[in-house]
Amino acid sequence: MAFACLETSPTTPLLLKSSSDTDSDYYDNPHHCKLTMQIQFQIQSPHKPLAILSGHVGAVSCLALCGEFVLSASQARDIIVWQQPDLRRFAKFGHGEGSVKALVAVANRVFTAHQDGHIRVWKVSRSSENVFRLLSTLPTTKDYLGNFMKQSNYVQTRRHHRKLWIQHSDSISCLAVHNGVIYSGSWDRSLKVWRLSDFKCLESIRAHEDAINGLVAHKGLIYSASADGKIKIWGKDRSKSSHCLKGVLEGYRDVSWNSVILCEDGRFVYGGGSDGRIAGWEEKYGETQQEWKLVCDLKAHEMSVLCLCSMGDLVCSGSADKSIVVWRRECGGGLLKIGVIRGHEGPVKCLQASSHSVGGGFMLYSGGLDKSLRVWWVSMESSEVKQGEMVSSNAMQLMKNKDWRSLSY
């Protein structure tokens, strides 16, 4: 049974705040949770802090929304479940060796990717005392036994070891679910495809020349962002059952892509780079093939962009400079800075936006290396620009730079 998200209204205690309140109004509850108890949405500010949730032993590495729950995982292997709307600590679970690198929730299942190279599947059930119960570990024992006898099923790893092709040989850094399959990207440079119905590994792709840091999937296409400076697009041809390369988006030399997102039903692709830049491409359809046109290139942060998320026509970027920048996406794909959110005491590692409207805005969750999960309210209605300016360029001018390339296949 899938959980439905609870509607959050501006009348709940968490979301009410008088204009005279300051950060000193936070208080510690028994669950190590600091909450701002009131907020008033008629204020001029385009964003407001709502809560600081603490309790992780290590840096917060990834976030996910699962119905009424917010899940945050850390480099110390623990996953904390926070219950909305009051954001009280509900449960804690975890398993495996090494930190949790990625989280994704699908219906009543939660998938976690780990540093030990495994994916763990958790079943969510209110009817059990153990709400988050370990269901399976990928690759499954059945899948392993079906492959280990044949020598042809083994591949050479970069550490001169041989492993089954269904196994990741390094940390799994990112997950994406689409069309009944789950995709996993790893520091071993491979992209693997798993069937959701029986968790069988269907395909392993040697996707990049360096670690894969981000994945996103939409309309049959999978976008993988890598430390090799490329965002690759993968899809299936009608005549083939396996994935093939559809396009390559490249940035400046010696720049790692740390994250990738899609906006407006897959029309725009944005990548966050290790040089603090955000680049964006628009998907175009040629006479015989898909093409991607560079529409945005901006210096977004002083330090590396570690994470991106989007909500409507807004894009949020988190950085190693400890800040979150809110951007408004223009019709041509350019980005207009409308606000900077500060509060984290360390680099911002992950961002997650809630799709439920709250007082003309949305809830933004951010996790940082300061071991905290922070909750913000971001306005969807504010059009006032107090800082920055739109950074959008004509693609033909950008393409004159030899370091920028947008290739189609």
TrEMBL record:
<protein>
    <submittedName>
        <fullName>Uncharacterized protein</fullName>
    </submittedName>
</protein>
<dbReference type="InterPro" id="IPR001680">
    <property type="entry name" value="WD40_rpt"/>
</dbReference>
<feature type="repeat" description="WD">
    <location>
        <begin position="205"/>
        <end position="234"/>
    </location>
</feature>
<dbReference type="InterPro" id="IPR036322">
    <property type="entry name" value="WD40_repeat_dom_sf"/>
</dbReference>
<keyword id="KW-0853">WD repeat</keyword>
<dbReference type="Pfam" id="PF00400">
    <property type="entry name" value="WD40"/>
</dbReference>
<feature type="repeat" description="WD">
    <location>
        <begin position="165"/>
        <end position="204"/>
    </location>
</feature>
<feature type="repeat" description="WD">
    <location>
        <begin position="341"/>
        <end position="376"/>
    </location>
</feature>
<dbReference type="InterPro" id="IPR045182">
    <property type="entry name" value="JINGUBANG-like"/>
</dbReference>
<dbReference type="InterPro" id="IPR015943">
    <property type="entry name" value="WD40/YVTN_repeat-like_dom_sf"/>
</dbReference>
